[in-house]
Specification:
The complex is a heterodimer of chains A (about 350) and B (about 300). Chain A has about 350 residues and is of the alpha/beta class. Chain A has two domains: about 140 residues, Response regulator (Rossmann fold), CATH 3.40.50.2300; about 140 residues, Response regulator (Rossmann fold, 3-Layer(aba) Sandwich). Chain A contains ten helices and 14 strands. Chain B has one domain: ABC transporter involved in vitamin B12 uptake, BtuC, CATH 1.10.3470. Chain B has 15 helices and no strands. The chains are: A alpha/beta (about 350), B mainly alpha (about 300). The interface between A and B is large, with 46 and 39 residues.
Chain lengths: ~350, ~300
Amino acid sequence: MRAKTLLAAATAAMLLIGGCGGPQGQEGSPNGPTQGEKGRITICLLPKQKGIPYFTSCAEGAQEAAKELDVELIYDGPTDGSPEKAAAMVEKWALQGVDAICVSPNDPNVLAPAMKAARQKGVKVITWDADAPSDAREVFVNQATAEQIGTALVDTLVKDMGGKDVKGEVAIITATATAANQNEWIVHIKERLKAYPNLRLGSVVPSNEDQKLAFQAAQDLIKASPDLKGILAISSTAFPGAAEGIKQAGKAGQVQVTGLSTPNDMRAYVKDGTVKSVILWNTKDLGYLTVQVAAQLVRGTFKGTDPTVKAGRLGEKRVEGDNVLLGDILVFTKDNIDQFQF
Amino acid sequence: MRRLIATHEAGLAALLAALLVAAWRTDPAFVSWRVQSGLLPQIGETALLAVPMTLIVITGGIDLSVGSVMALASVLFGLGFRSGWPVEACAAAALAAGLLCGALNGWFVTRFRVHPLIVTLGTMSAFRGLAEGVSAARPVSGFPDTFLRIGQGWTAVGLFAALTLAGTAVLARHVLGRRIYGIGLGESAARASGWNVDRLKASLYAFSGLMAGVAGVLFTARRNTAKADVGAGIELEVVTAVVLGGTSIFGGRGTLVGTALGLAVLHEVRQFVGWRWSNDVLNLVVVGALLIGAVTLNGVISRRPAGSVEGG
């Protein structure tokens, strides 16, 4: 009896609150339909992992573009890098009716169904930093092609070793044997090495995204081959590991290492001379370009099939197939590394 | 006793209604059918696990290994798929593994009379370790669209609804229901009256394992990934929903309708927090706060009717 009374009271209360109150607008809510070419639009930017320096600096550039283009930018992602949580966020944003979602998928297989569902709801979905299957997104904002990266790695290493006359062996420490990005780069590294007949490619060793394994791999490589002159450490964990390995083996200056990583991870090795060059792209520009592309897709000033896109302060950027190319490789040395804090 | 439970359920229903009204007043889109139906699948696996968990907690036990069993089932599904098995065979293997894990829990609990908290705390790490070892920490993806579609829809929620209806009928009218409450109210008394307490308890743990297997397969379909960290921490959510739903952690009291309401409150609070702010940061805090709130509320309520325990 009492239970029924309570239930009735609850229902009545609910109706009462509902009846006189009513919805009170939606301040701060990311809802809002597309309002033609000039209206404010909402764009979501999803990193692989929120809170790590690389993506935080991408987000700074994204915010800059958002201000210029009258875009409400939502930058959010899983702090533990979980692709399932990332997929749940994409689902939420699609239900909220945002205008565009830019995804850097940590696992494209997990993200793809949520991205496809969002596209079916009319949301513009693009990838940036890392790609997903092409039917899950409109375009991919590609920071650098595999050819650019492979060529830059080899050319920089040769320069650091003292020029093309140096004879000897070069080894590669990669992320994992199955990493698609890295394997593609290795193909172009091999291609570029043909331009330097004095150099010979030795082993290609995986480090399983583990800095300690990369450290061990570098030391093993040094022991195994007295002719070793250079190492390409082509992931952001392999590079500092390999640098530490060379340093502790007392081979700094005799064995050169270069690779892809962030300035913060490599600063100490660049300062003490173990590493001469660190290769990456301008992360702020990557975030900036991503928001530019997404906003222009929403407003119709850029179609995915156009050959170029006008990207604000970056000027015209080339579009190859369905890839928008950021284009410029950035090399950090002891002269400029302190200008980059990420 | 009945009235006590009904009071709790009415209170929960009122809380849920108040939550939804508050949500509607700040952001009406959240309460719309379109959004609610889109978000519903996200509670699916938790809901499925909450049915056996309710029954087990009513007997005075607990099953903390459900998330790990989910992972093991998911990993086995993925391994089968990678070796070219048809999806049906993969699913059968995953469910069988779940059932086996549950049966093992039940065997330990009844054969050695170890407290279920300890048994399932142990198997929670053992099954998780097994899943990690078997999968070599490598996820499997690329399942056919027909299979993925099972996970996108309401399969888990539908199954949960059916189980809740059937389970409510059994708990209220069937002799099995009386025995489940009886075990929770006093296991030695239940044994003294000649019931096969061990067999019933072991069956409940096996049922829980089977449902964890189903949840593992459905999660794999929903997220297109079979891997060893599936279901990590889900036991916390499940227990929270069950206790929030009015089931006493000491056994002897609880209903599946209460659990359904507990799930609804948990789901709506969490989704609304995610909707307005961020999915990730506040989530664990919210679940933890709800659990503490629920246990406190439970304690307050069960202290009130001194001497009226034997209600059933």
